[in-house]
Amino acid sequence: MKLSSFISSAYPETSLSPRIKKGRKDMIFSLEDLADRIGSRPDRASVEELVEEEASQIELLLSCQPDKRCALIWGYVSSLAAERSPLPLRLPARDYAGLEMAGGCIILEKGGDHVGEKMRGGRIVIEGAAGDYLGQEMTGGGIVAAGCRDYAFRQMKGGWGVVKGDAGKFLGLGNTGGRIALQGSCRERAGWMMRSGRLYVRGDAGEYLGLLMSGGEILVRGEAGRRAGWRSKGGRIAASHFGPEAVDGVTELG
Amino acid sequence: MPDPKSKIEQLVSSLEELRLHLGRKDLLIGRDRINSQLYFCLANACLRSRAVLLYGGMGANKTSLINLLGASFLGLELDRMEDLMVTGHPEQTEEKIVGFLDPRQWTGQKEGPVQVLWTDWAGSRWKLINEINRFPSGKQNLFLEILQKRRISYAGQVCQPGETCYFATMNPEFSATYPLDQALLDRISACVPAYQPDFLAGLLLSEREREVRDLAGMLPRFTESEFSSLPQLVAGKPLSSQVELAVLCLIRDFTLCERAPSYDKTQLSGSKPSLGLCSGCHYHNNPEAICWQTDEELSDRVRQDLRIFCRAFAFLLDRQADLEILRAIAPYVIWHRINPMTSVLEKPPYFGVGKLAYVASLVNKSIDRTMNERREMNLIYSHAMDREISASQAIEELSSFDDPIARMDFIPHLESRQ
β-pairing, B152-154 with B157-159? Predict the structure, then answer.
C-alpha cells in the first residue's frame, strides 16, 4: 500500500478543514475582559487574534472607557476598527488612539497622549490640539493636528506629520526619518539628536535647536533661539535669524 | 461452535447480579458507558502476553476481581485461583515465585539434566502478581524478564506455560511499599484505577448475603477452546487507518524533542524538561505542543499496546476499532509510563492529583491535531514519499508547518533523500 493511499484513507473527504481550525471565539464583554485574556503585556497580534471581525464586537470595545491597564488595548482596538472601516472613523479623545495603525483614517476632536504611536500607515486627523508623544516611533502614514505638546514625533522613522499650530518641547527628538511640518512655533530642543529626516518650522524655534544632531535637515522661517546647532555633528540647520551662541555651520536665510 | 463473546456478556451480567463486581461506569466509549476496571481486565483476558495493573486503596476489589475472572476463564475454583497468585513482600525470592532445584536429584543415582520444581504460578496461564509494589526494588527486576514473555527460565531450565495473561495489583504509597521501576512500568500495558464502591454500589453490596466463594461457583465457566480462541477473535478486528495514524502521531508527540540527540527524548540523560531543558525553546509553554509537558518518551511497547487494546475493546463492545476507543483507552495505557510537568499538573483542574485526566487531555490534543491541523502536512509528506511531488517542493511546503513532527521527522527525512 502506498503511503499516500494510507494517509488519504485516514482523512476522508467529510473530514474537517485541512488547516488549523479557527473555532468561533467567545464573546468579549469589556476591555477588562479582553485584558484578562491577553495578560500583562498586550500586543497587537494578541488583540487581533482575540477580537472577532464582527463590527458589533469592535464597537462594544471602542465604547468602553479604558482605565490605565486597558489604554494600550483600546489603542489597538481603535487601529483595528479604522483598518476595517470603509469610511473615516470618528473617535473620542483618548490616549493611544491609532496605536500601530496600518491603514484607514481616524478623526479625533482633540488628542490624548500617544496618539498615532508606532503607526505604519493610514491617516489621523486631530481637529484640536494633541497631547504628549504625538506620532512617537511612527514609521509610515500621516498625522495632521491643530497643535501638540511635548515629545511630538519622537524617534520618528517614516511617514509625515503636520501641526497647524504650535508644538511643545523636544519636537522630532532622535528622528531617523520622516517629515514634520509645523506651521506655528515650537519650544526648545526641536530636532535634538536628529539623524535623518526633515523638520520645517514656519514660526520660531526655541533654544538648542538641532542639539547634537548628526543628520537631516531643519528649516526655520522665523527666529531660532540661542545655541542653535550646539554640538551638532552633521545635518543642516537654516533659519531667518539665530539667537546668540549659534554654531558656525548654521545657515542664515536671506 | 464456541461463542466466547456471548459468554463474556453473561459473565459481566453475572458479576453484577451476584453482587461480585459493582464498579462505577467511568469509561465512555461512544454511547457505551462501562467500568474501566472490569473491561480492561476482560480485554486483557482476551489477549496474551499483556499486563494490566489495578491501582487503588485497600478493599477496592482488585485482587478478588482478577481471581474471579481467572476462575471463570480458566474454569477453576476461586480457591485454586487464590493459590496461584504471588503476593509481594520483602522475603519473596525467585525460588518461592518461580521454582527451585529438586533436592532429590542429588541423592539419586541417575545422571541427567538439572531438575527444577516449578511453582504453580510459573506454570499458570493466568498470572497475578498481587501487591507488586511491596516487592523491594531489586526483586522487582525478576518481573522485567517474566512479564510479556512466554517462557520462564531458572537454573538453565525453561518452563513454557504457553500464552499467558498477566495481572498485577498495587496500593498507593504506604510505609511498606517501594516505588516501581520505570522499566517495569513500561512493561505494564495498562494501569487502571480501582475505586471504592460508590453509595449505590455499597447499598447493593450490603444485600449480598452469601460468601464470595460460594457465589463465584455460579459464574459461567469458559472451556479451554473458548479461552484459547479469544486472541484470534480479537485479531480479527481490523484497525482503521485513522487509528493507525493517530497512534503513530501520539507516540511521536511524546517522543520528539528539538534539543535531544536525533530529536529523541530517550537519549536525554541528566537534563530533561522538568529540569529546565526546554527553557527558551519555542515549543515551550505552547499548550498545543506535548513534547515539553512530560519528561518521558513513549516506547514502541505503547504503540503495540494501544493497537491491541483498541482491537480488544472493539471485540468486547462489538464495534469498530475507531478513534473513540483510542481516545478512551489511551490515557490508561500511557499515564503510568510518564511524569508530567508538575508546574502544569499542580494547577487547577488537576491540583497535583489528576494525572490521568491530564494525560487524557494530552491524548485528545494529539488526536485532534492529527485529524485536523496535520492533515495537509501528512498528505504532503506521503506524496513526497511516493515520489508524486519532489522532495524539495515538499520540504518548502512543510517548512510552513510549525509542528514537531513536520520539523523533526518529515523534513530531516526528506532532506536525507535529496
Answer: antiparallel
What's the CA gap between B117 and A105, in Å, rounded? 93
Residues of B in contact with A16 (CB under 8 A): 371-372
B388 at interface of A, judged by CB pairs closer than 8 A:
yes
Strand partners, B190: B52
| CA gyration radius, chain A | 23
Looking at the DSSP bridge assignments, the partners of residue A125 are: A107, A144
Which amino acid is located at B212 in the chain?
A: V
Which residues in B lie closer than 8 A to residue A6 (C-beta atoms)?
Answer: 241, 244-245, 382
- Complex prediction ipTM: 0.78
Please say whether the structural domain B4-235 has been given the CATH code 3.40.50.300. Answer: yes
Record the pTM: 0.65
| pLDDT tens, residue by residue, A101-127 | 999 999 998 889 999 999 999 999 999
Please give the grid coordinates belonging to residue B403: 509542528
Nearest CA in chain B to A3: B382
* Residue B390, CB-side half-sphere exposure with 13 Å CA sphere: 4
Please state the domain extents for chain B: 4-235, 241-372
Q: Where are the alpha helices (DSSP H) in B24-150?
A: 36-46, 62-74, 78-84, 94-97, 120-123, 137-146
Q: For residue B306, which of B382, B256, B355, B366 has the smallest C-alpha distance?
A: B366
